Amino acid sequence: MDILFFAAIAVYIFVKLREQLGKVDEDEAKQIQEKIIQKQQIISAIQNQIVSEVIAISEEQKKIDDNLTSLLDGTSKEHFFKAIKACNISPEFFLNGAKSAFEMVIKAFSGGDLETLKFLLAEKIYLGFEQSVNARKAAQQTLISNIIAIEKAEIISAYMFASEASVTVRFVSKQINYITDNAGAIIDGRKDEITTLTDTWKFKKDITSTNPNWEIVSTNSN
């Protein structure tokens, strides 16, 4: 907006200087002509900057569109854009939030942090996590989960029904997972083994809600 404003000013000055050429002597005309040339250079530079920014924005949008097109069919893509537009977020922002939620859930489940799990998970799926955590505690076992890297997070489907948005994300991560007994001995998994895991999680949100959080309603690993 500022660029367009200054461009308009430069054009206005250029026109006014042009009008003055017929009312001055030769020396003054020469000075005005030099000012005109300077203003033309400013206008040209501003126009080039505007064009460059428009091209950059277009390329970035095309990159986003191409990425989603490769992941979603036409209907899912339409639903996803409707969902994120209603929530006033970008695809990148959504995926960054999804990755953060993924890491938080893995860490909370490993550490038996039921409060965090209850905050992030839908009630039905939370109950399953709670049972697993309590069973592990009863057996005096400890789960160690370390996420080495999230190699990929991609949207594979999306849906809008009334005010409810539903987005499914596939995560590919490298993790170290093992279980120890109450004496600290490893009874399952290996401390030095990095495994590549693929998880498919579904996120839902009522777009009319003032709560900005997306709720995790299902988690599947393969």
Enter the CATH topology name of the largest domain: Nuclear Transport Factor 2, Chain: A
What is the rounded distance between the termini? 49 Å
Could you spell the SSE succession in H and E letters? Answer: HHHHHHEEEEE
Strand content: 25-35%
- Largest sheet composition: 5 strands, antiparallel
- Output the radius of gyration: 29 Å
CATH top level class name of the largest domain: Alpha Beta
Number of domains: 2
* CATH-scheme architecture of the largest domain: Roll
Folded structure, characterized:
- This protein is α+β, with helices and mostly antiparallel strands.
- Helices cover 55% and strands 27% of the residues.
- The protein has helices spanning 2-20, 26-71, 74-86, 91-111, 114-120, 123-138, and strands spanning 142-161, 164-180, 186-189, 195-206, 215-221.
